[in-house]
Amino acid sequence: MNANAPNLSxxxxxxxxSNVDFTIVGSGITGLNCALxxxxxxxxxxxxxxxxxNLPQGASTKNAGFACFGSLSxxxxxxxxxxxxxxxxxx
Length: 91
Ligand SMILES: Cc1cc2nc3c(=O)[nH]c(=O)nc-3n(C[C@H](O)[C@H](O)[C@H](O)COP(=O)(O)OP(=O)(O)OC[C@H]3O[C@@H](n4cnc5c(N)ncnc54)[C@H](O)[C@@H]3O)c2cc1C
Fold this sequence. Notes:
Blueprint: H1 10-17, E1 22-25, H2 29-41, E2 47-50, H3 72-78, H4 84-90
Parallel strand pairs: 1-2
The structure holds flavin-adenine dinucleotide.
Flavin-adenine dinucleotide (FAD) binds near residues 30, 31 and 50.
């Protein structure tokens, strides 16, 4: 723990910050989805998610809520690396 770490009790440190198998930085949609995936792959792993704010501070709690799969120009660009069938499957 560095000098800026919160003043943790022995029990808090032992419970939350020791023997951690995976640490994820950021509790946005990417970090939480990563944690869920890790939990599925490693059911007994200790997974720590650290977030800089009291609440998530990034785009995940501020976005418009649309399920985006790409704009028309992105889909056309995908054709450079995907077959048409793969691109349509993504859509
Ligand atoms: C206004 C707006 C509208 C949007 N609308 C849509 C939409 O309609 N549909 C869509 O699909 N996408 C939309 N997006 C994009 C989408 O929200 C983002 O792509 C997505 O939320 C990114 O998720 P993320 O987990 O990668 O990042 P974030 O949600 O930004 O999460 C990163 C987290 O990491 C934390 N963090 C950063 N640095 C540290 C650190 N050093 N220590 C600890 N924690 C840290 C941050 O506080 C934050 O909580 C929108 C984005 C914005 C800004």
